UniProtKB/TrEMBL annotation:
RCC repeats lie at residues 51-100, 101-123. InterPro entries: RCC1/BLIP-II (IPR009091), Reg_chr_condens (IPR000408), Signaling_Regulatory_Domain (IPR051625). It holds the Pfam family RCC1. The keyword Repeat applies. Coiled coil: none annotated. Keywords: Repeat. This is Regulator of chromosome condensation 1. The keyword Membrane does not apply. It comes from Albula glossodonta (roundjaw bonefish).
Length: 123
């Protein structure tokens, strides 16, 4: 993994500089209300006021919910039927919470971080 951003996770569409040191407006969201943002190691998730989720950045482990990496934010279509109210990102996974309290998870889950495995307890 690269130790510096390649601009995909910023949602700026792949600008020329490798590192952006001054805050810039992400024009993709002009005219839209962003309610929540989650940041992973090399990806970002955005929750819009209408309950839709957009992701961008590196997708080497499926953390975007798309087929490949995205330089510009793209809507996570698998969540179209959901009213998402919160997003969160780990290093290489993403979580979304809907208005019914259900959690949707995708990306790397090798250590159980997606919460999708059966848990057993032993005493």
């Amino acid at each position: 993994m690269s130790s510096h951003p390649d601009q995909r996770e910023l949602g700026l569409g792949g600008i020329d500089e490798e590192i952006v040191v001054e805050p810039r407006n992400c024009p993709f969201f002009n005219g839209k209300k962003v309610c929540d943002v989650g940041c992973g190691l090399r990806h970002t998730a955005f929750l819009l006021g209408d309950g839709t989720v957009y992701t961008c950045g590196c997708n080497d482990l499926g953390q975007l919910g798309h087929e490949k990496s995205r330089k510009k934010p793209e809507q996570v279509g698998a969540l179209d039927a959901q009213n998402i109210v919160g997003v969160s990102c780990g290093e290489a996974h993403t979580l979304a919470l809907n208005d019914k309290g259900q959690v949707f998870a995708w990306g790397l889950g090798s250590d159980g971080q997606l919460g999708l495995t059966k848990f057993t307890t032993s005493r």
